[in-house]
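Example record for the data management plan.
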Amino acid sequence: MSDILTAMNLLIKVFEKYSGKEGDKTTLTKGELKELLQHEMGPLLGKAPDKAAVDKIFKDLDSNSDGLVDFTEYVTLICCLTTVCHEALCKK
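Corresponding structural encoding:
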């Protein structure tokens, strides 16, 4: 499998690892998103995000305001963080 297909597969697997623990397997609740952020993005985000930070991230991601983060909204987070990392590396 190519590198990009491997990366896509990994993004799907990470989403599925955390989704459905508290409800629907196709979405992330705020609690599931917090767990994902802590365990998967800790080195990038620093200390565990506090409640206010998680609330803001969740609100920003929940583009359809249904109180859940679906896969498309999750991928938006990944793309935004990847862009920020890329820009930081290009400045070095």
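Summary line stored alongside the record: The two ends are 31 Å apart (CA to CA).
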